[in-house]
Design brief:
Elements lengths: L3 E5 L4 H12 L5 E4 L7 H9 L13 H4 L10 H10 L8 E4 L2 E4 L11
Parallel strand pairs: 1-2
Antiparallel strand pairs: 1-3, 3-4
Length: about 120
Amino acid sequence: MEKSSLIYNPNCSKCLASVKLLAEKQVAVELIEYLDQALSRQQLRDLIHRGVSPKDMIRTSEPAFQALNLDIESLTETDIIDLLLADSRLLQRPIFTYADRSIIARPVERLLEIL
């Protein structure tokens, strides 16, 4: 069985829908509550290495990001990782990892792309 994980927020409807879909597909998954268990620099780099675009990892609609008055297009991968390390609320979710791939599961049906 392939190892899988879901970086999620239990208060997010998309995250809960992802958990439900994975349960329906009988996929064993490690749930990672990123607001309680912040990701490390290496974990963020690993997500990028597995296919998640750094710019897609940022919740640009999050008030904390908007308050920074930054242009997402001007940020480097390192800038984005530093922002996520400084404030976990900026991380887009849910992020699903299965085998050697990771995706942002928006819409939730994207999970099916890598199962």
